[in-house]
Amino acid sequence: MxxxxxxxxxxxxxxxxxxxxxxxxxxxxxDYILSKGVHxxxxxxxxxxxILQSRxxxxxxxxxxxxxxxxxxxxxxxxxxxxxxxAVSLAETSKSLGYDxxxxxxxxxxxxxxxxxxxxxxxxxDAADLPVIIYNIPSLTGANLTTQKLLSLLQDNRISGCKFxxxxxxxxxxxxxxxxxxxxxxxxxxxxLGATAMGADGGIGSTYNLIGDFYFQIEIAVKNGDIEYAxxxxxxxxxxxxxxxxxxxxxxxxxxxxxxxxxxGTCRAPFSSPNSDVLQLLDLxxxxxxxx
Length: 292
Ligand code: MN9
Hints:
Blueprint: E1 7-10, H1 26-35, E2 40-43, H2 55-69, E3 74-78, H3 84-97, E4 101-104, H4 114-128, E5 132-136, H5 138-141, H6 147-154, E6 159-164, H7 169-178, E7 183-186, H8 192-197, E8 202-205, H9 208-223, H10 227-247, H11 249-259, H12 276-289
Parallel strand pairs: 1-2, 1-8, 2-3, 3-4, 4-5, 5-6, 6-7, 7-8
Helix pairs in contact: 1-9, 2-3, 3-4, 9-10, 10-11, 10-12
The protein binds 2-(acetylamino)-2-deoxy-D-mannose.
């Protein structure tokens, strides 16, 4: 089974006024994202605040998203969890809901040995019966999957690729070259151009919730050999990312979308509200760059 498309938004999770998952927030958010040319949605990942949710809440989000967006775009469910049982349960749910693929961070908190990690991915692949994408994000999980370990996991033909969220373009290129039959999606939005030039199959990122068109166009510009234009677009995206790194990426994105009339609520504690000085910078950026 092929995963179609290359530009995927790491979907924010809309919350209501009480801080609960808000199924009614899905439609406006998805409509906006897809209007920017994004090919698919990657739900319940880091950007989706999944680590701050129960398994039941994550399933609720996956159900509401499938009901609204199935058939409209490619749907990838992030099912990674600290326990294999939770990840397997979410993988089964995703399969039954018609998702196109599942993805998972390695099991976190405890320092698991590589056999544990391999068995965890095998259990997810068994349960999902869908293509599995490893989500490598060592800065947050603390799991340092070396090139060799990633290549070893990728030998399982049910593991179809990797979402690579790190700054090491050398490691990224090595993986790309040594596993030519697999898909490699880049997850550090501020370096998407570099990764695309080095052979990425696409990108999955948080800022795609707001400016998916930038990444869509960078990919086309690289294909056309127009590096100058691609660099201009990446530079513009990075002006926003520089601000978001000050507001907190998820909080800043939620602030921006709320302001644009797309109600996504606020981040769940322990995330707190960004201070008003940095929000002012973000508001200025929005006023200048977003016209909806
Ligand atoms: O994987 C996101 N990474 C993290 C996706 O959440 C750590 C990225 O999309 C970043 O938010 C983005 C801004 O640094 O590159």
